[in-house]
Design the sequence.
């Protein structure tokens, strides 16, 4: 009997939190792959592209209104958007609700979600390897590369650690314009000659 109760408790815990498959750490820069771009409409009908966020650290969250673990994470993401937005950080939510905006618009309003939400498609899901579990979250560096992936619910502190690591990273992810890089590398003695009148 105790064994049955223990099994029920474990299964209930897994059902509530989702089975989490996580990369555990931010990937080394050399192993990061580019996040696929997409163009989807937000609640106002404006086209949102992931590439519009190049230069920012992005938390890209695939979720649904009916997903229990998603409901736990969303308040964290609202806090992240509020607390990190001035550090070139953005949360972007991709709803995978079958009925689209019918469920999503009221949910956004009720929860006072302060970050962009778009409604995903099967094509969007396939771009990201086929989203088969919700939530699935990608942490994307300033260069648009996937630095971490989480399937299922993970702790708020895991997200915070990854976000802070990427925000504190001095690598610009290839976002800095090439001419500015060259000018920063010019020897000051040569600069004096080049710019002398």
Sequence:
């Amino acid at each position: 009997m105790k064994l049955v109760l223990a099994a029920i408790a474990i299964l209930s815990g897994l059902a509530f939190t989702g089975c989490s498959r996580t990369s555990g750490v931010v990937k080394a820069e050399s192993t990061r792959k580019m996040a696929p771009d997409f163009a989807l409409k937000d609640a106002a009908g404006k086209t949102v592209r992931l590439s519009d966020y190049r230069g920012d650290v992005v938390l890209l969250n695939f979720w649904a209104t009916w997903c229990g673990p998603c409901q736990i994470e969303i308040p964290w993401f609202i806090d992240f958007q509020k607390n990190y937005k001035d550090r070139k950080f953005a949360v972007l939510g991709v709803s995978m609700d079958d009925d689209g905006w019918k469920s999503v618009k009221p949910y956004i309003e009720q929860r006072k979600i302060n970050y962009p939400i778009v409604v995903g498609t099967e094509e969007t899901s396939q771009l990201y390897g086929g989203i088969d579990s919700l939530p699935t979250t990608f942490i994307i560096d300033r260069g648009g590369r996937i630095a971490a992936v989480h399937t299922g619910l993970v702790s708020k502190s895991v997200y915070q650690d990854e976000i802070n690591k990427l925000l504190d990273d001095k690598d610009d992810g290839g976002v800095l314009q090439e001419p500015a890089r060259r000018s920063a590398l010019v020897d000051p003695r040569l600069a004096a000659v080049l710019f002398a009148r």
